[in-house]
Amino acid sequence: MFPATIIMNKKIIETLPENELQQFLELVYKEYGYDFSNYSEASFQRRIIRIMNLDQMPDLAALQNKIVNNPDYFKTFIEEVTVNVSEMFRDPLFYRSLVDNVFPKLAQLSTIRIWHAGCSAGEEVYSLAILLKEAGLLERSLLYATDINLSVLESAQRGVFPISLKDEYSQNYLASGGKNKLSDYYSENGKTFVFAKELSQRMVFSPHNLCIDQSFNEFNLILCRNVLIYFNINLQDKVIKLFKDSIAPDGHLALGTKETLDFSAVASDFESVDKKNRIWKIRKR
Questions:
Q1: DSSP 3-state assignment of 154?
Q2: DSSP string across 189-231
Q3: Which end of the chain is more exposed for a tag (fewer CB within 10 A), N or C?
């Protein structure tokens, strides 16, 4: 059973029956092709319950009915259930490590292909683009930014962020080893700030579902930070194998601070570059 508590018009739902949740997952996959069966049980349960609570639904049947009969609502559902919180230059020491340990390898290449998997609203894509520019590498780089959530992809492509975040992002930028001022890369527009086109023109935004989609290129660097924690162990292993198949010779893989390759069947194909900051290099084949 999946324990939960939802307050709905003073009616309390104590549990979400496992069989009903499984049927719900099967319906979502059948109707729309989104496979959540391998998501972390606890994480997915919390998100479903939150959606039901926000939209005042008494049971899964009500949620299921609305998803089937209202495709527009399903878009909202996907936005809520797949949302990933991010920020620019998150974990500044990680970015310092990228510059010190990975950029020198990238500098040897005529064309640099980078994949941000699960890019959310693009905060980390723009972060890396700025550091690549400061290292003189942006003009020969292509940054592929993918996510399952079409809405956040559209937002990422615009490169627009709330003005209330600029001070926090500026501090992160400096802590990451930024050489200038973050404001050199954006312009303010009322309640938002917009990053320069010279950054976004090196980016390709595209939908990609890590659960079911395949490799689509060969990359010199893959970043998928704080996404795998939402998957169960089987799906994590599947995604890591996908990354292994997508990495060019001498390419690098970067994960989130709580993520690891240790359990994976292909862990031996990687060697650690920075254990603390979760950066690996593919072993020579």
A1: helix
A2: ETTEEEE-HHHHTTEEEEE--TTT----S-EEEEEE-S-GGGB
A3: C
Judge contact between 96 and 176, C-beta under 8 A.
yes
Collect all residues with Cβ–Cβ distance below 8 Å to 155 and sequence separation of at least 6: 121, 122
Given a contact cutoff of 8 angstroms between Cβ atoms, the answer to whether 38 and 231 are in contact is yes
Q: Is 28 helix (H, G, I), strand (E, B) or coil?
A: helix
Q: State the DSSP string of 47-81.
A: HHHHHHHHTT-SSHHHHHHHHHH-HHHHHHHHHHH
List the structure tokens of 236: 């994590």
Give the integer Cα–Cα distance in Å for 206 and 220.
Answer: 18
Question: How far is 259 from 264, CA to CA, in rounded Å?
Answer: 11
Structure tokens at 243: 């990354």
> Which residue segments constitute the domains of the chain, with CATH numbers given?
2-81 (1.10.155), 92-282 (3.40.50.150)
pLDDT in tens, 226-272: 899 888 899 999 999 999 999 999 999 999 988 999 989 999 999 99
In sequence order, the 6+-apart residues with CB closer than 8 A to the CB of 3 are 14, 15
Q: Which amino acid is at 176?
A: S
What is the rounded distance in angstroms from the CA atom of residue 54 to the CA atom of residue 56? 6
d(CA 54, CA 217): 39
